[in-house]
Amino acid sequence: MATTDERRRLRVRPDRLLARLRELGSVGAIPGGGCSRLALSDDDRAGRDLVVTWMRDLGLDVTVDAVGNVFAVRTGREGGPPVMCGSHIDTVATGGIYDGNFGVLSGLEVMEVLAEAGVVTRRPLAVAFFTDEEGARFAPDMLGSLVYVGGMALEAAHDIVGIDGGRLGTELDRIGYLGSVPCPGLPPAAYVELHIEQGPVLEAAGGGIGAVTGVQGISWQEVTVVGQPNHAGTTPLSYRHDAGYVAAATTVFARELARELGGDQVATVGRLSLHPDLVNVVPGRAVFTVDLRNTDEAVLQQAEARLADELDRLARAEGVTVERRTLARFEPVEFDPHVVDLVERTAASLGNRVRRLPSGAGHDAQMLARVCPAGMIFVPSAGGISHNPAEHTDPEDLAAGADVLLQVLLALADGDDPPGADRSRDGAGPAAEERR
Amino acid sequence: MATTDERRRLRVRPDRLLARLRELGSVGAIPGGGCSRLALSDDDRAGRDLVVTWMRDLGLDVTVDAVGNVFAVRTGREGGPPVMCGSHIDTVATGGIYDGNFGVLSGLEVMEVLAEAGVVTRRPLAVAFFTDEEGARFAPDMLGSLVYVGGMALEAAHDIVGIDGGRLGTELDRIGYLGSVPCPGLPPAAYVELHIEQGPVLEAAGGGIGAVTGVQGISWQEVTVVGQPNHAGTTPLSYRHDAGYVAAATTVFARELARELGGDQVATVGRLSLHPDLVNVVPGRAVFTVDLRNTDEAVLQQAEARLADELDRLARAEGVTVERRTLARFEPVEFDPHVVDLVERTAASLGNRVRRLPSGAGHDAQMLARVCPAGMIFVPSAGGISHNPAEHTDPEDLAAGADVLLQVLLALADGDDPPGADRSRDGAGPAAEERR
């Protein structure tokens, strides 16, 4: 068995990690070097099958829960809940090969390094990938981890209908990932997620490792505007009830609102469709989404309220009706301070430049933070580009991040007490009710 | 043979006209009382077959030209070009049953009334329906009449690809309407089109008949904005190249521009699509259309120029590229003053309230006006609603309009000289080149 010193000198093998990233990226590959594996699609099944094969080849104990989350456990000297790492392997329709996949495959690389070194940790270790993190097919995003921590009832999750009309429970069954392990699952001892930043902050700061302090709150809504379709040539402006105009004016307002609120407030209209969508017909109906995010819950609520006010004002002025539907709503999350410290110290001790920063994107770690000490490790994204085939992180950054994950997992699995152990005794469990 | 007095007392049979309107409206019927017969679709073929059957039942000589325009000729005492009426029977995807169809079926009703009364006019009469007037499947609109008057080469028209990828020439052949009569066609002696107003002006003026003075100029363009798809949570506003935002800001600007230019200037963004069209991805590409119309060519050009300037400004500010493509461009048209006078006098002599007005919509008559004396007769549209299943005109207004058509056709077909005969001698023919 390796000494503590020997353990501290353990490093991942970047070539092996990169080879797995490329092989998984070739499943559902799309032009430009990206991939498309929408949750529970045939391509997602193929990706899952590949990762599960790797898990089994590493001698890990693989289980699947009732919402399709997959766990691969490595036995420790003691029993009890494992120290878990992981992420997701589903992608957006035009995604890159790193988002999510990097965290899962780095976890497997860590397991392989430990096996080669003959290391057995005190607590068990686990690598997980969670279902439908992207929310690109089934809303809300981070669905699998939300159900895992008890934030949504399993039956409600199974009944979610995707953008293509598919039912989540039926699709899970169809692709063979409707597992038998019940949800919500047992809380792990701790959870650490390694992920690409997906933003430009680390790169702009000269690179290095990010010790993630928390996650922005997220508000997703779908807005349906109903006006009156009419002839584009014969209908004077004052007679119009133009649903498309209201959608456009709201899009412009959302940008102005985010600028005015400042800080890290962002606002995005990512989806928009008009009906009947003809060049010479005033749009009678418009459906669009608004994505609002902020680390400050109070400001996020202010953004939501002002957007709602503006929609009401526009609806009255244009003579249209407006309906809003919440697709997802998560409050900002703060990660466990001990885990954040551990990530920061470990990254620095390995010679990395380190920066604390919040995450602009939602991650499974924010769900796990409800039931155990949790944190995240970020590596830079070239140009801040993500959700795009051009998504890229340099191999040396990938290796540096995976080494930090390896050492953080060892510290958590071998320590006397998992960090934030207080929290696990104070009865804080899954949120009583998911705010939707 | 009827005397001049007897001819002046001839009236259409509203029940017969309404029955044909309803029967044709049942082809491609959609919920809400409308119909959907996109040009050269299976439903369009079914509608064409029905109208051609009616034409043959009335003993008319039916011919089809090489762009699918259909002509039904009634012999006169003399030879030479016919006095023509007509319109179109294609519809937008969510259209009403009156737009276009009313003019064609009123023409058939006039033929039936004349046959019953044993009237033979001096010049031949013709009822026409022109291909793809709406432009909802194949751009530009008024395509069939444009090709008929020599404004577009037949081969170019055949090669137009529709919104569903279908090629116009192939689709004509598929539905059996690739006729043998060459294009451009022989100019008629005169052309009169009866049509619903599709706008609110006549109704707001207390109803009656519209003597149409001309048609607004039309500018259709398709704008493609290319930015960068990126993560909606992690990309600060200042790093964004949001194609959807530029599309939205242009939509809002178009409305403001039309308000500022005033008069009868209108601007409509009717079609808009985002890519990848996901809630949490900043749109990397947006494609949308802008429809600008004005009776004043100089102001229309000003609107086009200012829109182009604003697009350039937005593109620079957002760091995106913009491409503009003209889908259709027609200058304003003034109808033949003698025909406008004849419509006005005839409508008044039949006891109608009459109002002169320009058309906000494009019509086949504006194409025919390039090669012969042409004019239009409008009847009111309830609520100004058109291109909508709720499109409606009261039966008495339909009958009044058809009676005006009947008497105007008789006057033109029996007169010593067709009005505007000067023009037919001054060599004015099809426009030398279509401005696209």
Describe the structure.
The structure is a homodimer of 436-residue chains. With 436 residues, chain A is α+β, with helices and mostly antiparallel strands. Chain A has two domains: 4-214 and 332-425, Aminopeptidase, CATH 3.40.630.10; 217-330, Alpha-Beta Plaits, CATH 3.30.70. Chain A has 14 helices and 18 strands. In chain A, the strands form four sheets. In chain A, strands 3, 4, 5, 6, 7, 8, 16, 17 and 18 form a nine-stranded mixed β-sheet that branches. In chain A, a hairpin with a 3-residue loop joins strand 1 (29-30) and strand 2. In chain A, helix 2 (14-25) runs antiparallel to helix 4 (101-117), helix 4 crosses helix 13 (395-414) and helix 11 packs across helix 13 (395-414). The longest helix of chain A has 22 residues, at 297-318. Chain A starts with a helix and ends in an 11-residue tail after the last helix. At the A-B interface, strand 9, strand 10, helix 9, strand 12 and strand 13 of A face strand 9, strand 10, helix 9, strand 12 and strand 13 of B.
Subunit organisation of the chains: homodimer
Biggest chain pair interface = A-B, 70 and 70 residues
Q: Supply the CATH class of the largest domain in chain A.
A: Alpha Beta
* Structural Rg of chain A: 23 Å
Parts with pLDDT < 50 across at least 5 consecutive residues of chain A: 420-436
CATH architecture of the largest domain in chain A: 3-Layer(aba) Sandwich
